[in-house]
Design a protein that fits this description.
The structure is a homodimer of 222-residue chains.
Chain A: H1 3-7, H2 18-25, E1 28-33, E2 38-40, E3 48-54, E4 57-62, E5 68-74, E6 79-80, H3 82-87, E7 94-97, E8 101-107, H4 108-117, H5 119-144, H6 148-158, E9 161-163, E10 166-170, H7 175-181, H8 186-198, E11 203-205, E12 208-211, H9 214-218
Antiparallel strand pairs in A: 1-8, 2-7, 3-6, 3-8, 4-5, 4-7, 9-10, 10-12, 11-12
Helix pairs in contact in A: 4-5, 7-8
The first copy, chain A, binds a DNA duplex (30 and 30 nucleotides) through helix 8.
Chain lengths: 222, 222
DNA sequence: CGTTGCGTTGATCTCTATCAAAAAAGGTGG
DNA sequence: CCACCTTTTTTGATAGAGATCAACGCAACG
């Protein structure tokens, strides 16, 4: 695994230039942990933060009476404990691996030096955060607009292309998976698609949906 | 009210020197709004962000069919829309005052200049981003759990504190607002809470929910 | 062939939004 | 303090969307 190219694709650092990514990579190392292994503990000095490459880690706190509370579970691509680096000196919670995992470790000092030296970097990181937040807002919107017909219509239109004059959507996933992606179950998916077919809004041929009149279908997407 | 001294005590700026605070204050102005008044709207150019001085504001989105759902409620000391000013230039959601409120308005330009000059400031902003991101993840998890009883039970438990031996949840928002935050309408909220009361899982006194047996209530949160 | 998994169709049931209206809680002005 | 009005909260009845349960056709595959 190449740390450099991994970092270049994380949401935090994706807009870094090659040179900036090089500089950042210099402050990193790879950490492999086995299931159950401790990554850091509450109260210890926060000397680094991490980005999960593979596996899953759990952030938890111990209550006074010794019980543990899971705060978060982080998977591939997600930064871990970066808030501790940004605003305090100690880890506010503990972290262990839920499965065998590998992480990129980014040292606090190296990271802070970099930011102080190249203030544009922090703008890029913030922009990354900002985009990520917008994605989440969009996702929340999807979930709150809960009508199946809208969701399916929107999906078909957003994933359609024009091929020799016809608007078509190639279904790249099985219908079972699609149902799940759209937040429903296969039965409901099937019925909704059947409804569109019956209304002559779409026709289906060999896993390809043809949309004769996109504008008409669009009426259903809200 | 003195903007300068208020800013000096906010989370974002409390570690500023007097001189830095002066510079910042130069880019700000005070904005007073009455209950219900619009502060900014989705899609408009993000020319500034705000910090709540007093009152409460709500961040929300309108779905295509005109219904609104609340993303956040912000109170005194909290920054609002600071995420919007780094990338796409437009507000991703709208904001109105829930009560008469006063805000400090900080212009985008002035603030960006300041960040370039004082990189430590960006660390604080990034820390805020990181926390906000977690809130969204939690919110999405909330919404995908589609049963109202689970959502309310989870909310009550997550916002409860132990006071002289009793687990209680102080409702800090009106029930109408709470409904919106939980992704439902007041009627359903009221009924669900009534159900919990009838099952003796909770009692209510003056906007405070008492949870006699948190474990029992927890059974409903999944 | 039988088995297994996917996709479709049908019947039913649960949850919750909607519509309607009453009750409770806050103001506001006299 | 009271009458009046507005807003919030609660309760009731209804309807619609979608999940659930069940069954069947169909293709892939050993």
């Amino acid at each position: 695994m190449d740390i450099r190219s991994f970092l270049a694709h994380t949401f935090l650092f994706h807009s870094f230039t090659d040179k900036e990514t090089d500089l950042l990579t210099a402050s990193t190392s790879l950490k492999k942990v086995s299931k159950g292994e401790q990554i850091f503990s509450e109260g210890l000095e926060a000397t680094a933060f991490f980005i999960v490459v593979s596996g899953k880690v759990k952030i938890y706190k111990l209550s006074p009476d010794g019980k543990e509370y899971t705060l978060h579970i982080h998977g591939p691509g997600e930064p871990v404990a970066e808030a501790a680096i940004f605003d305090s000196m100690t880890y506010p919670a503990s972290c262990t691996a839920l499965e065998d995992a590998t992480l990129v470790r980014i040292s606090r000092e190296g990271f802070l030096d970099l930011i102080k030296k190249y203030p544009e970097l922090s703008l890029k990181i913030m922009s990354g955060y900002s985009k990520r937040l917008r994605q989440f807002v969009a996702k929340i919107e999807e979930l709150t607009v809960k009508d199946m017909k809208s969701r399916l219509a929107r999906y078909l239109l957003e994933n359609s292309v024009v091929e020799n004059g016809k608007t078509v959507c190639h279904l790249t996933h099985s219908k079972k998976e699609l149902s799940s992606l759209l937040g429903t179950i296969p039965e409901t998916f099937s019925r909704t698609l059947a409804f569109f077919k019956q209304q002559k809004l779409v026709t289906e041929n060999d896993n390809t949906i043809v949309i004769p009149d996109p504008k008409k279908l669009k009426l259903f997407s809200d």
